[in-house]
Write the structure tokens for this entry.
Amino acid sequence: MTSTTSARPPGRPRSGVNDVVFATTLSTVHELGYARATVDRIAAAAGVAKTTIYRRWPSKGALIVDCLLDAFGPVPLEGSSRTELMSSAVRWIAAKIGEPGVGDAFAGVFSDAVSDPDLREVLSRRLQDPYRIALQEALGEPESRVLFFIDVVVGTLLHRMGMTGEPMVDADVDALVEMVLAYFSDGAGQT
Amino acid sequence: MTSTTSARPPGRPRSGVNDVVFATTLSTVHELGYARATVDRIAAAAGVAKTTIYRRWPSKGALIVDCLLDAFGPVPLEGSSRTELMSSAVRWIAAKIGEPGVGDAFAGVFSDAVSDPDLREVLSRRLQDPYRIALQEALGEPESRVLFFIDVVVGTLLHRMGMTGEPMVDADVDALVEMVLAYFSDGAGQT
């Protein structure tokens, strides 16, 4: 797992099972859609016992979140300037959301969260916080501005996927980068 | 119905049934969450026969779309300048998404659409197009730019709702207006 927020528990190595489950989760979501990609179906497709999955992930949302963390990996924080950093972060998440199953899973778990406070807490703390904190530190921006940055970038990309079924095309990702950079560069007086 | 794209069919007036069904849909979504607000539950809560509902709306998505059209009404196109117009449109949809059940329904039908091409077509043609066309005409902007404007504004607002369970607070709606106005005003050379 590439999540930076969880230590690997002691005992027999589990990365094999996680890898199979995560890969199967994304392909099942891609194939059946988020709603019909139930944990039971994922377990069956992965050839993993349901009990094994339920033991590690108490809910579908928790599984999807770990699957997304694994698919995303760490946000790239390269760039000699804030604008390069923001630009590469936007393009990175745009590309991730374009990967098969990832955009569907992200949009799906997101919608479930609108009416599920526990899942919202998992999304916020486990999925969003590592990236939010990394961006705050790299950009030297306060939490509220980074949260807004994330709303704009992720929100726009997911809306485009929802309306068209396809990831946002490069020309529009360029427009998103331009708009965001103009706003966040001016606001902090830095480039 | 306040939708401008459908003529009222002949025959006995139906506005009473629609009003009850739309109000019940929003309250049921607000109370149970989008996934558990099934058409059967909505029919029962509304005291309307399931056959009546299924006859008018062939799917849950179609019902939700008409319910949202009714809740939104026409986009306000007041303002003596493009900036006033864009600003009022952003604040209008921010307020609508904040209404009980509306944000949940919008996010919910949106997520279903990611993996349902038929529902995407209904969302795009029936829910989005009237507003897109009205904005294109009022702003004098081409379709691709208005689609991007909608992705940014609606996407950001729905992401905030999904992550916090609450509509975006006024200070951040102000930031959204500022960012969008800066980008779209400069781009077209108009204010």
In short: Chain A has nine helices and no strands.
